[in-house]
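Sequence design from tokenized structure. All designs in this work follow the same two-part layout: the structure record, then the generated sequence. An example of the structure record is given first.
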């Protein structure tokens, strides 16, 4: 039996996920990384991207617009600036997110802001 990881994903609006899972893929600022039970403690900023939550044969995909990931001996906590389940990103909501990313790119004043906006445009363009 696979050991489970305590995982919590929180956005300013609500707690989106709070359960034990097998694995989580996080869009870290230095590249995507996977977290399993007993992962070494670490903290990372996140770029816009898809958090993939895997448990057995099920897989949840959640778009995040940046934030922080904190791995401790107790588990993984993701504090997202914004989080939306990928299956909910369609129609008007997807269009709004794409427009927001384009507006962020136009308003970017630092290389980091530019990178985050470009990454959001890229990720949303694949959905």
């Amino acid at each position: 039996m696979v050991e489970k990881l305590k995982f919590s994903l929180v956005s300013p609006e609500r707690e989106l996920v709070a359960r034990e899972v097998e694995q989580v893929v996080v869009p870290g600022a230095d590249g995507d990384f996977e977290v399993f039970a007993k992962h070494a403690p670490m903290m990372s900023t996140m770029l816009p991207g898809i958090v993939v939550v895997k448990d057995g044969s099920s897989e949840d995909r959640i778009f995040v617009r940046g934030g922080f990931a904190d791995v401790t001996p107790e588990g993984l906590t993701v504090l997202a600036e914004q989080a939306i389940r990928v299956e909910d990103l369609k129609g008007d909501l997807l269009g709004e997110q794409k427009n927001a990313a384009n507006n962020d790119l136009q308003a970017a004043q630092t290389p980091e802001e530019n990178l985050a906006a470009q990454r959001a445009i890229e990720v949303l363009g694949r959905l």
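The mean pLDDT is 95. We note this feature because it recurs in several other targets discussed in the main text.
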